[in-house]
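Please check both lines for our workbook:

___
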Amino acid sequence: MKSSILKKAIVLAMVLSFAMTSLTGCGSKVDDTDKNVDSNVDNNASDEPVYGGEITVAFQSAPENFDPDHSSSDWVVTAVTNHVYEGLFEFNANNEAVPQLAESYTVVDDGKTYDIVLRKGVKFQDGDELKAEDVKASMDRWFEVNPAGIAIAKDLISVDIINDYEISVKFSKVYAPFINILASPVSRQKMLVKKKEIIDKFGSSIITEHIGTGPFYFDEIAMGQKVVLKKYEEYSPVDSTSSGLAGKRVAYLDKVTIEFVPEESVRVAGLESEQFSFVDEVSNDRYDELVQFPKVSPTVCNFGTMGIVAFNCGKEPFEDVNLRRAVAYAINPTEMATAQVGDSKLWSVEDGSWFKKGTIWYDETAGDGIYNNQDIEKAKDYVKNSNYNGEPIIILGTKADLFTSSGALVLQSQLKEIGLNVEVELYDKSTYFDYLKAGKWDINISRWSDMNPDPQVFEPWTGTNGWITNWNDADSKKMDEIFDRMVCEMDYDKRYEIVKEFYDEFWKSVPYIKVFNDKRVYGINDSLKGYAGYGQPYFWNVWVSK
């Protein structure tokens, strides 16, 4: 079954990582006239795959370590280690967790126990076969070290070895979302399988020796500079169609060098000169520049992030739902997206669903009547029916972030139109986070990932005293009750109906607002074929044309 539950106490650290930087399925080069980019579409996939060759790519951020469980890791750690390690389960392009190193699983004891059968013949990169003892050691560490594992460890009874190829995970209560938690593509959440002897050596300390089951292994790690990945010749791929992070992984390339290059101008220049075959994190306003480069295509992530307007629901004036509804009807998403993102190829205003069309938790009716339905007169009526008395409303943002600062200024203008006294306060990042934590704000504009493994992840953001909103009233408690039922429902159809209840209640009480979806831009050399990234960039099933 599907989901992810995160403890409120650790949510801030997790959310700040993936809300700002996590990425999802990337598409091919975008025609200037085509706003609707298909996700997970490889470039020139009709070309026949070619074995051999090597590439150098450039990532913006250099991680502090390559331990995917550790709380200090970030999305780059996930992007790199996905080549070296694999999960028991991985998410496909339809946002479904499916077996990868696992062969199958069975839910027993009315949802309290998961029996997981492993694939036989899977080899670690030192030649040893993957066994249940490795999975148990990896899972025990995951429950102890990984933020997602820690969040549910309080309800864990035991992880038991049944035989060399089967384990049993027992909880004290029904845990419908467990498989989704294990497979979560979000940074610092997925349970990746490591060798028992490595875990015995490092325990809960940061792992610096890496032996996985993936199609590539670490040949060189130069912290802060680069990593070199080489093809693992004895790799044992799962026998299923590649989709998202799931399915067959083929290492066509002999070597992938990932250099960490923080300066965008250097990454882009390297792409143009063909030093780099791929670069991440290209500014949206450079999209047209990349189009003009010979032998280069901009690659747009069709799944990416969402522009969010969040309320401090724990104090006046936004503890009043009428004022929150007034803002919802005052917002013009198109104006905000244009100001915050720019080119309309790189954003979309769709619907009020928190999951994209085509995924299993999508609801096309979510937000009907309120999402993307600017109605100034209705907004003014809600202001009149609220307890608002003209006091200043503070929109908090950061000076250096044009995404949030531009959005704050547009929103200020829109809210003044309905009679609100709005001030924009922009600070350096350190002060911004201090003010956010201290509750010295009324509205916050931010950017959240839309790569969510399960609706349950919205519980710590949306329920009583949730992250950022500080929401605590009768409506928040209704939301708590919905999430309590959601986590225990093992039947997908019944759980989907509960998810629809969540959508309905959310858009009635609007503790925060999804404004638009936007996309990230990568650059890719036209000689690199088969690229179809999902989550973070990856380079299996990718080859260089001769």
